Amino acid sequence: MASWKFKSIIAIGALSVVLAGCSGSMNGMDHSKMNMEETQASSKTTNGQTVKPTVLTGKEINLTASVSNQEIAPGKTLPVWTFNNSVPGPQIRVKQGDTVKINLKNQLPEPVTIHWHGVPVPNAMDGIPGVTQNAVQPGQSFTYEFKTDVPGTYWYHSHQDSVNQLDRGLYGSFVVEGKNEEKVDRDYTLMLDEWMSSGEMSSMNMSGGNMSGMDHSTMNMGHDMSMYDLYTINGKSGSLVDQLPVKQGDRVRIRLINAGYLSHQIHLHGHEFKVIATDGQPINNPDILKDNVISIAPGERYDIEFVANNPGKWLIEDHGNNAAIKGMKATIAYEGAAAGSDKANESEKLAAVDMSRYGQAGKANFTLDQKYTLEYTMNLNTEMKNGEMVYTINGKTFPETEPINVKKRDTVKVRLVNNSKTDDHPMHLHGHFFQVLSKNGKPLEGSPMMKDTLNLKPGDEYIVAFEAANEGNWMFHCHDLHHASAGMVTELKYTDYKTDFVADPNAGNKPE
């Protein structure tokens, strides 16, 4: 498995922008009235090719995976792997209840798949090579077809040798618009990521596909993430990041998606806001916040909403102490605002929103003390084995980890414990949402919280619960994909599920 994290860009209109119902913005485009297959103005890559727009709608979508080069930071062009010649790939935007067909064509030098992160698809559509399908070979195609029943903010990415292929740029956002969701004036998506900018990399030729043999899945070396020295929003860093235009009085929704391998502390300047959803699932009666950061871990999504009631130019930015953070900021620009902007303050210490106490208690699916069909403990740890750093679940690495065996309609309670001394573990369950019941021994006090990705800091213990309501063989793994590729993966297996999938030993399937 070969990985390294240099991902890339494309002019994402106004940040993978999706203008939900705004009449005067983004060159006058109003996405609420558009039903075309593609929207937004074209832009050019550094290859000189004209790129199609970055929002795709409709019930049939075409995605082509191919090699490109794109400018990530001013003067810094990197080789990338792309969907539809851009990183992030186009936002796919569908309506609740749609049956969508997505045709993947592989023009890369290596096999590829697509996983629909957070979307409860049928198991055969989950995109896991060797588990639900064979990896799509160079020159070949595969069609994903599923119904989008659950509205929310999701994303898609390759799950073939994913620690490397995400690093190269194979991801995009996926939004399911709810039938009854309230309309906003502006709807923006910000995909967060990290890259390596070393000169050697930027001069490498990726067309051969082996990336000079660099393999980040085995590059743990104590899991040093400082190699990622370039942080991006929608594939751009620093002055290349697109502004977010607003008008006074606009109701603005920002969808934050972490496509990288590090957590980010996102701060909205100058405005009160609410966190209205996590991992696409709504928060009950969210509280008003100001000058808090949202801690967003790899694989997680947070939707925030605010009213544009403070004219000027305001930042939304990452907070922390390393130099790369300076590149992860975007400007919210009011129409007619004077030149200049508020000052960056990325080193300011601000409290993170405590999601275990956020929002208002309400009707929940599960309780801590009810009887469950199955209870299971996952002890997550970091160990040295045979001179290499590995990441274990109950002392074992995948594929030796013991699966969680269930039958349909079982209720399952899982205790997750992070015994690693320094590493976070954002654990992602495919095909299901789980309810978070407690954190570090304390029951959740706020809104019921449904998630598919949950970050455990060192020493954290969470209890979660879900119903086995989506038959199949599903991955449950850490979404710091360095950890997954070094062992931190198990499976949720329905013992009463029969698949007709047959793995091809010649397909080169690499599920992590």
UniProtKB/TrEMBL annotation:
Ranges where the Plastocyanin-like domain occurs: 72-180, 187-329, 383-494
SUPFAM superfamilies: Cupredoxins
Lineage top rank: taxon: Bacteria
Signal sequence interval, chain numbering: 1-20
Keywords: Copper, Metal-binding, Oxidoreductase, Signal
InterPro entries per the UniProt record, alphabetical: Cu-oxidase-like_N, Cu-oxidase_2nd, Cu-oxidase_C, Cu-oxidase_fam, Cu_oxidase_CS, Cu_oxidase_Cu_BS, Cupredoxin
Gene Ontology terms for molecular function: copper ion binding; oxidoreductase activity
Pfam family, one: Cu-oxidase_3
Keyword Ligase: no
PROSITE patterns in the cross-refs: MULTICOPPER_OXIDASE1, MULTICOPPER_OXIDASE2, PROKAR_LIPOPROTEIN
Protein's name in the database: Multicopper oxidase
Species assigned in the record: Paenibacillus tyrfis
Lineage: Bacteria, Bacillati, Bacillota, Bacilli, Bacillales
